[in-house]
Specification:
Belongs to the FAH family. It comes from Litoreibacter janthinus. Keywords: Metal-binding. This protein is an alpha+beta fold and 294 residues long. It folds into 2 domains: 65 residues, no CATH class; 218 residues, Alpha-Beta Complex (Fumarylacetoacetate hydrolase, domain 2), CATH 3.90.850.10. It is 15% helix and 32% strand. The chain has 7 helices and 20 strands. The strands form 4 sheets. Strands 7-6-18-11-12-14-8 form a 7-stranded mixed sheet, with no helix packed on it. Strand 16 and strand 17 form a beta hairpin. The protein is globular. The protein starts with a strand and ends with a helix.
């Protein structure tokens, strides 16, 4: 199944996507609600509408304004160094334990929404990443069982303010500016992609300019290994989000000059079989003025 959470004139709902068309699942069963949490917590709920999807009215996917797949995720955990060539371009040693950090809820936004370059820095960078959504929670999850805990996969742009990321050994400031982490718009269930979403082309672009191009098979820590590792120290819960790190080609490592995102550009993150997360870059002052005028 391919899901899209988004808004139409009828409100925010969960849609089942087939090509360029989408069926409103919330209209078929109101208990599904306006994000994926009900389906994550009660997967059998899909059975209540499965037989109705084929004959239900559909809308164009392009007519839906994306919303966050999970409106209020409990925990957002990110891997910082998970592709060997990206580790080398950043000047780091290859670690024997994943570099993990957390994002707060104000730092994330939906695909299509403005990705905000802050007033205090021009060093806004892009990071194409695979993101998984936890379906079944747990602690001390074995690697062998880990993929059974995945509800689905989506696309993530881990927008990073590099000078603030480098201010301390902890990356928290540079990874948590408001409206810098774009998620979505589509979520695909595990049966739609190879095991662990491995072997998928992953790419970032601005227009025709290819910024990053790699494959999720190049991740050092797989989805299963990551779930097992994280669940050693914390209990994962349904709806938690885990981002799987970025491949080489990030802006700060470009030679001879860094390649920062600037207002007026649109950055696209694409993962084969999942979709494209596209966001315009805006200046914080312009964004604040736009929000105030609404």
């Amino acid at each position: 199944m391919k899901y899209l959470v988004g808004e139409t004139k009828s409100g925010t709902a969960v849609f089942a996507v087939n090509g360029e068309k989408a069926v409103n699942l919330t209209a078929l069963n109101a208990e599904i609600g306006d994000d994926l949490m009900a389906l994550i917590q009660t997967p059998s709920m899909l059975e209540s509408v499965a037989g109705k999807i084929a004959g239900a009215p559909s809308v164009d996917v392009s007519s839906i304004t994306p919303a966050l797949p999970v409106a209020k995720p409990g925990t957002i955990i990110c891997l910082g160094l998970n592709y060997t060539d990206h580790i080398k371009e950043g000047g780091y040693e290859i670690p024997d334990y994943p570099a993990l950090f957390m994002r707060g809820k104000n730092s994330i936004m939906a695909a299509g929404a403005p990705l905000v370059r802050p007033t205090c820095s021009e060093k806004l960078d892009y990071e194409a990443e695979l993101m998984m959504i936890i379906g079944k929670g747990g602690r001390h999850i074995s690697e062998a069982d880990a993929l059974d805990h995945v509800f689905g996969y989506t696309v993530f742009n881990d927008g990073s303010v590099r000078d603030y990321q480098r201010k301390t050994h902890q990356w928290t400031p540079g990874k948590n500016f408001d409206d810098t982490g774009a998620i979505g718009p589509f979520v695909v269930t595990p049966d739609e992609v190879p095991a662990g979403a491995s072997g998928l082309k992953i790419e970032s672009r601005v227009g025709d300019e290819i910024l990053q191009s790699s494959n999720t098979a190049n991740m050092i820590w797989s989805v299963a290994q990551t779930i097992a590792t994280i669940s050693e120290y914390t209990t994962l819960e349904p709806g938690d989000l885990i981002a799987m790190g970025t491949p080489p080609g990030v802006g700060h490592a470009k030679k001879p000059n860094p390649r920062w995102l600037v207002p007026g550009e649109v950055v696209d993150i694409e993962i084969e079989g999942i979709g494209i997360c596209s966001n315009p870059i805006v200046d914080e002052k312009d964004h604040a003025a736009s929000v105030a005028a609404e």
